[in-house]
Amino acid sequence: MILPIVGYGDPVLRKVGEPIASDYPKLKELIETMYETMHNAYGVGLAAPQIGLAIRLFIVDTEPFSESDDLNELEKEQLKSFKKTFINAKILKEEGEEWGFNEGCLSIPDVREDVYRKGKITIEYCEEDFITKTEVFDGLIARVIQHEYDHIEGILFTDKLSTLKKTLIKKRLQNIMEGKIRADYKMKFFNKKGR
Choosing a second label site near 58 at 20 to 30 A (CA), which of 89, 104, 153, 182? Predict the structure, then answer.
């Protein structure tokens, strides 16, 4: 089942997600639905708040990035095979040089900006089996995880932009809130007139 993606301006995108337990209702189906929704929208990550649920759950599948000509074969192979579910995640450490990358977000269509993030993270999380893991990720995989992790903390990539950049995109963000944009996937807009 493909769900609509919640657009910029919806209060659920600003909520800090609640931890969930292994008996969360229909969790397996929810995760499958999230993957289906993300793949339908050609995304590389999707967090539960983006489908209207303020819980600590996000998914990542970096395979679309593996097509980039800017990467070496090892990087392409890593990205092609990285698909993971993160439940109750907590970033323990961010380290290394900050580097810029042009980010977008399924909740903020048609807005892409350079965002600077640390290159390496240590994260504690559970997969679907609820066994706690601590792992280190770097490069594009770390970046996608950081972006999705921000969602479960109520943070959007636009929050990381300079005041000038925020001013320049203000009208586009307003248009998203009002549903005055077209996305190639189903969306739910917060302030759409006549709804």
Answer: 182
Separation CA 74–CA 77 (nearest Å): 5
Does residue 147 have a known ligand-binding role? yes
Q: Is 151 annotated as a binding residue?
A: yes
Instruction: Please name the residue that has the structure tokens 């793949």.
Output: 39
Model confidence band, residue 148 (pLDDT cutoffs 50, 70, 90): very high
Active site residue 63: no
Which of 93, 195, 91 lies closest to 150, judged by CA?
Answer: 91
Residue 173, pLDDT > 90, answer yes
Indicate the average pLDDT of the chain: 94
User: Does position 92 have pLDDT exceeding 80, yes or no?
Assistant: yes
Longest Cα–Cα distance in the chain: 50
Listed by start position, the domains of the chain span 5-183
- Under CATH, what is the fold of the domain 5-183? Peptide Deformylase (3.90.45)
Provide the pLDDT for residue 193.
61
Choose, from 124, 148, 153, 178, the residue flagged as catalytic: 148
Q: What is the pLDDT of residue 168?
A: 96
- Residue 12 neighbours by CB distance under 10 Å: 19
39 appears as a binding residue in the annotation: no
